[in-house]
UniProtKB/TrEMBL annotation, chain A:
GO terms for molecular function: branched-chain 2-oxo acid dehydrogenase activity; metal ion binding. The keyword Mitochondrion applies. This is 2-oxoisovalerate dehydrogenase subunit alpha. Its EC number is 1.2.4.4. Pfam families: E1_dh. One of its GO terms (biological process) is branched-chain amino acid catabolic process. It is found in: Mitochondrion matrix. The branched-chain alpha-keto dehydrogenase complex catalyzes the overall conversion of alpha-keto acids to acyl-CoA and CO(2). It contains multiple copies of three enzymatic components: branched-chain alpha-keto acid decarboxylase (E1), lipoamide acyltransferase (E2) and lipoamide dehydrogenase (E3). Belongs to the BCKDHA family. It is an enzyme of class 1 (oxidoreductase). One of its GO terms (cellular component) is mitochondrial matrix. InterPro entries: Alpha-ketoacid_DH_E1_comp, DH_E1, THDP-binding.
From TrEMBL, chain B:
One of its GO terms (biological process) is response to nutrient. This is 2-oxoisovalerate dehydrogenase subunit beta, mitochondrial. Heterotetramer of 2 alpha/BCKDHA and 2 beta chains/BCKDHB that forms the branched-chain alpha-keto acid decarboxylase (E1) component of the BCKD complex. The branched-chain alpha-ketoacid dehydrogenase is a large complex composed of three major building blocks E1, E2 and E3. It is organized around E2, a 24-meric cubic core composed of DBT, to which are associated 6 to 12 copies of E1, and approximately 6 copies of the dehydrogenase E3, a DLD dimer. Keywords: Mitochondrion, Oxidoreductase, Transit peptide. GO terms for cellular component: mitochondrial matrix. Gene3D superfamilies: 3.40.50.920, 3.40.50.970. InterPro entries: THDP-binding (IPR029061), Transketo_C/PFOR_II (IPR009014), Transketolase-like_Pyr-bd (IPR005475), Transketolase_C (IPR033248). Its cofactor is thiamine diphosphate. It catalyses: N(6)-[(R)-lipoyl]-L-lysyl-[protein] + 3-methyl-2-oxobutanoate + H(+) = N(6)-[(R)-S(8)-2-methylpropanoyldihydrolipoyl]-L-lysyl-[protein] + CO2. Signal peptide: none annotated. One of its GO terms (molecular function) is branched-chain 2-oxo acid dehydrogenase activity.
């Protein structure tokens, strides 16, 4: 910051230079030397004890692992040669060496984890020490989401609902992050975040109602299945166009900041959606407008059939954050404790410092993209099996709980039966309900119904009076 | 139009166009054209309006924004270059008065501006976004059409972005060529959930903009940029609103119905006079005002009386909003029509630079159409 101010204020720079040249040069070196590796050791303990901005600045992140430059080690020369560029567009030093910054110079951003695949916490000080109740709630949530996924996936296969998307393998990202934020923080999702809504108490009946588009659906049967939304749960209705929610989430975060009630926004998206123009808009707007928002990227390796090496050539999504001036971190998305820790810390930065944070959760999409997709057409069954068996957020959490003696085989068995019973009961109930009244097709287009829609609704009413036997009118509320 | 105003206008457009880096330094003399294709017809405020003051269109917009921010503490204005007052001066003084968190620049990214506005509105704030030229609204098309317009419907009225208004300068300006001249209303008229509004002068601009900002639906407010400085009226100082979806009969007549909006209303106003003087034809002039949802009834009533219709707009004819109006009139007034419905519009070409005088649906083209309508 010290050096940046000088860059922007030439007169001040000159004044200081003339007063105390050597002092300035020393300060500048300290403040801007990106190769000061001691700054880069980032752990939760550091973050707890030190204001984050002093530990994890974007420029430090951006240059982590870069090869040392020749200018930074050269001996002090003529004073005037040590001046700094005055271009308004950057905060740089001069260099007389032509050197392109190569992505190869950067190590991949490390994946933060708390427990290993056996559920053993590696660094005890990183254990968030969540209560037994909380971990049990997370575990039960993940497993019941898994049960619901199985039932609804099958029901689509049987033609009972038109479409479905499972959450297999990504349950940890949902519950770990949802548990770390406040229940009235506003959520903008993509479509594979049902666990967040479930954590907040959205009932199985309501999930099913949405998928069936029945008269209990809060969205009145207007959207495709899995496009959930609930005002009561601060979960903004999902829409199909990818990444559109990202700049919207930034706007909402800005509005919450002005409201000054300490709320923030979390915005989920996949690594494929991150290629959309809206993603770049969102990151840039959030940074420049200081919006309190957590960008949460689920990097599960695929966007439908497209593997990540066809999606991007950089170091995933997390590496883009520092380029926008956004504190960023990469976590093991199958480690619910790591996701929890990262999201919790991100929330503090957001709210306390009023700035965005980017979390990239590395995971693997175990299920097909959707019920309209057969993923064996583009990836091997063995690859999927590997992730399912060796590195699954549910089994890892279960192992963690077993180490603590919070869970055992017997409890597992009875919970599985209970979960299945709850899911099946909601399922049968949802299937029995009528669809909403056909007139709901015309409402809510506008706040008020304009004349053209009133006319069109009347036209349809008259038409149905004459031709109702050709329409599925008995499935709909009268 | 005084030369002083014209010079200011030219200067302003020049600055903005150069900003977009799309023109070379040549050909500047043609920007000092001393004729416009219309004469602005100022409106007289009603006697009940209270105190008024002379304002041009950009000042009326500024005044509406000032009132909107004063009366609604959640309201914020944002877009490219709005902080210093905007490239058309519409937001002058507002940042000083209301603070940097309420009037601020965004990065140069239209899809971001629209998305950001939708999000602000969804979180309960009043969002007034500016797109620098309507020509550059297309990067935000997805956000406006797939998101803003459908936000309430798809959530079952749990969420909405009704407190979003997007303002954008539109229409011909004499030398704006392809990307500083477009009239984009028809693209959005095909999108249920949006409101599309275009004023014809300062009094209208203020009242309609306040209505858009306070309406519970996402609104697109297109400001004819050629009127920013050129259109001057005695604008009421008070906080007032003009209803949306209500067309206005500006001149009553009984032979031909003329329908237009924005600048074109002034072209048609001159045509009314020409038709009366030279053809002894009595024209009824209607300003549509709101393109979506539009006021069918006012138009149907007029056509039932006159039996002849001319619709004129600057945008290209094919797929233009005139087609929608014509089809509706044809269905509702079939037995009253005495001649085919005429549309005098822009040609089906991109908006040209040096050919603008030939491109526009000017008064002579409209006058000729009236002759044909009468003699059919």
């Amino acid at each position: 910051m010290f050096a940046k101010k000088f860059v922007n204020q030439k007169f001040l720079l000159n004044e200081i230079l003339s007063k105390n040249v050597q002092k300035f040069i020393n300060t500048q070196k300290l403040a801007t030397n990106p190769y000061n590796k001691s700054c880069l050791q980032i752990s939760r303990r550091h973050l707890n004890s030190t204001p984050l901005s002093s530990v994890l600045s974007p420029e430090q992140l951006a240059t982590s692992g870069a090869a040392p430059s020749t200018t930074s080690t050269s001996a002090p020369v003529d004073v005037m040669a040590e001046d700094v560029p005055e271009f308004p567009g950057s905060r740089s030093k001069w260099t007389e060496t032509l050197r392109f910054i190569l992505p190869e110079h950067f190590e991949g951003i490390p994946v933060y984890r708390v427990m290993n695949r056996k559920g053993i916490v590696i660094e005890p000080s990183e254990d968030p020490n969540l209560s037994q109740d909380m971990v049990t709630k997370i575990y039960k949530g993940m497993t019941i989401l898994n049960s619901m996924d199985r039932v609804l996936y099958e029901s689509q296969r049987q033609g009972r609902i038109s479409f479905y998307m499972t959450n297999y393998g990504e349950e940890g990202t949902h519950f770990g992050s949802a548990a770390a934020i406040n229940d009235d923080d506003l959520v903008f999702g993509q479509y594979r975040e049902a666990g967040v809504l479930m954590w907040r108490g959205f009932k199985l009946d309501k999930f099913m109602a949405q998928c069936y588009g029945n008269c209990d659906d809060l969205e009145k049967g207007r959207q495709m299945p899995v496009h959930y939304g609930s005002r009561d749960h601060y979960f903004v209705s999902i829409s199909s166009p990818l990444a559109t929610q990202m700049p919207q989430a930034v706007g909402a975060a800005y509005a919450l900041k002005r409201e000054a009630k300490g709320r923030c926004v979390i915005c989920y998206f996949g690594e494929g959606a991150a290629s959309e123009g809206d993603a770049q808009a969102a990151l840039n707007f959030a940074a420049t407008l200081n919006a309190p928002i957590i960008f949460f990227c689920r990097n599960n390796g695929y966007a439908i059939s497209t593997p990540t090496h066809e999606q991007y050539r950089g170091d995933g999504i997390a590496s883009r954050g520092p380029a926008f001036g956004i504190p960023s971190v990469r976590v093991d998305g199958n480690d619910v404790l790591a996701v929890y820790n990262a999201t919790r810390q991100a929330r503090s930065i957001c709210v306390d410092e009023s700035r965005p944070v980017l979390i990239e959760a590395m995971t693997y999409r175990i299920g097909h993209h959707s019920t309209s997709d057969d993923s064996s057409a583009y990836r091997s069954v063995d690859e999927v099996k590997q992730w399912h068996q060796k590195d699954h957020p549910i089994s890892r959490t279960r192992k963690y709980m077993e180490h603590k003696n919070w869970w055992n085989e017997e409890m597992e068995k009875s919970w599985k039966e209970e979960a299945k019973r709850q899911v099946m009961s909601a399922f049968t109930n949802a299937e029995k309900q009528l669809k909403p009244n056909w007139m709901d097709m015309f409402t809510d287009v506008y706040h008020e119904m304009p004349d053209n829609l009133t006319e069109q609704m009347e036209e349809l009413r008259k038409h149905l009076d004459l031709y109702k036997e050709h329409y599925p009118i008995n499935n709909f509320k009268q | 139009m005084s030369s002083k105003i014209l010079n200011k206008l030219s200067h302003n457009i020049l600055g903005v166009v150069a900003k977009r880096k799309c023109l070379s330094s040549g050909g500047m003399e043609c920007w000092n054209r001393s004729v416009t294709h219309f004469t602005f017809n100022p409106q007289t405020p009603s006697t009940k309006s209270g105190d008024t003051t002379r304002m041009n269109l950009f000042q009326a917009v500024n005044n509406a924004l000032d009132i909107a921010l004063t009366t609604d503490p959640t309201a914020a204005i944002f877009g490219e270059d709005v902080a210093f007052g905007g490239v058309f001066r519409c937001t002058v003084g507002l940042q000083d008065k209301f603070g940097k968190d309420r009037v601020f620049n965004t990065p140069l990214c239209e899809q971001g501006i629209a998305g950001f506005g939708i999000g602000m509105a969804a979180a309960g704030a009043t969002a007034i976004a500016e797109i620098q030229f309507a020509d550059y609204i297309f990067p935000a098309f997805d956000q406006l059409v797939n998101e803003a317009a459908k936000f309430r419907y798809r959530s079952g009225n749990q969420f909405d972005c009704g407190s979003l208004t997007v303002r954008a300068p539109c229409g011909a300006v004499g030398h704006g060529a392809m990307y500083h001249s477009q009239s984009v209303e028809a693209y959005f008229a095909h999108c249920p959930g949006l409101k599309v509004v275009i004023p014809r002068g300062p009094i209208q601009a203020k009242g309609l903009l306040l209505s858009c900002i306070r309406d519970k639906n996402p609104c697109l407010f297109f400001e004819p940029k050629i009127l920013y400085r050129l259109a001057v009226e005695q604008v009421p100082l008070k906080d007032y609103m003009i209803p949306l979806s209500k067309a206005e009969v500006l001149v009553e007549g009984h032979d031909v119905t003329l329908i237009g909006w924005g600048t074109q209303v002034h072209v048609l106003h001159e045509v009314c006079q020409m038709a009366s003087d030279q053809l002894n034809v009595s024209c009824e002039l209607i300003d549509l005002v709101t393109v979506l949802p539009w006021d069918k009834q006012t138009i149907i009533n007029s056509v039932k009386k006159t039996g002849r219709v001319l619709i004129a707009h600057e945008a290209p004819i094919t797929g233009g909003f005139g087609a929608e109006i014509a089809a509706t009139i044809q269905k509702e007034c079939f037995l009253n029509l005495e001649a085919p419905i005429y549309r005098v519009c822009g040609y089906d070409t991109p908006f040209p630079h040096i050919f603008e005088p030939f491109y526009l649906p000017d008064k002579w083209k409209c006058f000729d159409a009236i002759k044909k309508l009468i003699n059919f």
